[in-house]
Amino acid sequence: MRTKLVIRGLAALAGLAIAAVGAAGAPAAAATGTAVTGTAAPVTATKGTHPATVRTASLPGAFYAEAINRFSGKCINVAHGSGDNGAWIQQYHCDRTPAAKFLFIQNREGYYEVQNQGSHKCIDIEFGGGWLGARTQQFNCNGSATQQFALSELGNGYVKFVNRFSGRCIDVPNYSQADSVVLQLWNCVGGAENQEFRLNIS
C-alpha cells in the first residue's frame, strides 16, 4: 500500500512539472488595442497595460527634432510658444522657433519623453486620459505613461507617436491642414498620413 502511494505521489509531481514547462513555453494571450514597436509587428496593449519594452531600429537615444506631419506639412508646436502647464500641443506652419523643436529622450524601456526646447515641458495628454479625441498638451515632465511614446518607424524618417498609456496615436483631427489645430489621440491606423510625422533631426 505504501509503495502505491509513493508511486502516485511521484506521478503527480511529474505531471505538475510538465504542466509548468508547457505553460512557460506557450505564447501569452493577446490583449486588445494596438501599439507598434519599431519596424516589427504590432505589439498589443490596452489602456493602462503597456509593453514593458519597445524597440526602435535606428533612432538615437537622445536628439532634437522638428516633427512634420506627412499630410499637412505642418510642425508639432506649443501654442503661442507658451511656457505654461496645459498649453495645447498643436500643428502650425514650421517656423524654426523653439516652440516647434523638441528634445526626444529615450528611457530604459525604449519609450521616448518629448520635451519642448522653449518651455522644457513634456508632451502630455489632458487629464491623463486615453480616450478617443483626448487632446495633447504640455505639462511638467513627470515620467508618467501618458508622457511616454513609442516611435513606430515607417521608413524615410517618418514615425507614428504611440502613447504608452493608451496605445493610441497622436493624430491631426479630420486631416486638417490649418494652423493652430490641437492634436489628439486616436486609434492607430495603418497608412493614415495625418498620424505620420517626419523627424527633422538637428
Measured as a percent range, the helix fraction is 10-25%
Structural class: mainly beta
CATH structural fold name of the domain at 62-201:
Trefoil (Acidic Fibroblast Growth Factor, subunit A)
What global shape is seen? globular
**What is the percentage of strand-forming residues?**
25-35%
Topology pattern, helix = H, strand = E: HEEEEEEEEEEEEE
Q: How many alpha or pi helices?
A: 1
Strand order of the largest sheet: 1-4-5-8-9-13
Q: Specify the CATH class of the domain at 62-201.
A: Mainly Beta
Tell me about the largest β-sheet: 6 strands, antiparallel, barrel
* CATH architecture tag of the domain at 62-201: Trefoil
Mean pLDDT: 81
Question: What Rg do the Cα atoms give?
Answer: 22 Å
Tell me the total number of β-strands: 13
Low-confidence stretches: 1-49
The first-to-last residue Cα distance is 80 Å
